[in-house]
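Hi R.,

Here's the chain you asked about this morning:
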Amino acid sequence: MSFCSLNGLRVLRGSLTLPRLGRWHADLVVDTNAPLTGRVTTTFGEGAMSFAGTVYRGDVFQDSFHCRIVGGANGLSKELPAKYYRGVPMRLPLQDLLAECGETLSASADEAVLARLLQKWTRTRGPAAHALAELADLGEASWRFMPNGSLWIGREGWLEVDFPHQLLRSDPTDDRIEIASDLPLLRPGTVFAGRRVSAVVHSFGPDKTRTEAWIERDGLLDRFKGSLVSIIRSVMSEVDYHKPYPARVVVQDSDGTLQLKPDSDRIPGLTGVPIRYGIPGVTARVPPGTRCIVEFENGDSRTPIVTAFEPGALIELSFDGGSRSIARVDDTADCGALSWASDPSGKSLTLSYRRPGTLVAVPFLALAFPAVKATPDAGEIAIESVIRSGAPKLRA
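And the predicted structure, written out as tokens:
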């Protein structure tokens, strides 16, 4: 049996690239003129170790099958629909993501990261890899595919490893070492010879392997993908979270936040979205169907906010927590009422005043013939005014 085989077929030569962040891939030349597709297993050292993956691309050339194998089911390139999460552990959106793209979660994934609570998270429509990278960022975690094809996510443990090997080269200028060993045992995310391993490339022929390892530098991203992933994330964040989205109000909850249905399918339905009014102390009640603009504060998928409304209906607008209607010019005012009553005999007349908001009139002057009597003997009656109507949609 050969040193390396693909589904039992002899591998003439190849390389296995293992990043600390991302999926591994193997570039192989296989001794067959029949192309392979789908799930495959690359085996080393007569079955001593194996890597489960999927044929990403391949073709037959000069009676050999040249191919690239990627870790897992090759599902991270699948475009997923938008989805919104609120008050859930990270495990839920991660498992949803993996289920939708056909990948599986490793049994060794970091439970502390999976249990991390996401107050709000918006998954935009797009490749699963972008959503996975963002989830890992939110959990301050790394992710990569394991040899068995499952996806691991978690905080690096940096366990120290050692095995029989021969040091062939050490390049301090590039923080890179090269070793020879019987099997491709070195992995990223470990400590080897006192140094943290960031990325590994195993190159092999019919009977031997050589390993190049890049040593970790400061930062969460590994040496292979740091610059590229930073650029991609920056661009995607600009596209997805730094522009306004028109939306429709589904309902306004009792705490004043909104449930929204964005027009674009790049953004899922949102709940618990606060309103930024632009003026201190202002709150509003709006009916379902109101048109608005939703944005993401600081380009953060966890902080959707409504920043503007289109012209339309308004239930109520309040200032500084007030609950009373605001009066306007020409609104009516209640100043109470003056009334009179004459004696049936025609010998007296009584004048009374009813204060605003009361039902009982109080007499203040009695005219009797031939005399006049005041009740009380001396005093003053104020004519008070209380505004009884106002702007029905304004409160202060």
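The chain is about 10% helix and 45% strand.

Let me know if you need anything else.
M.
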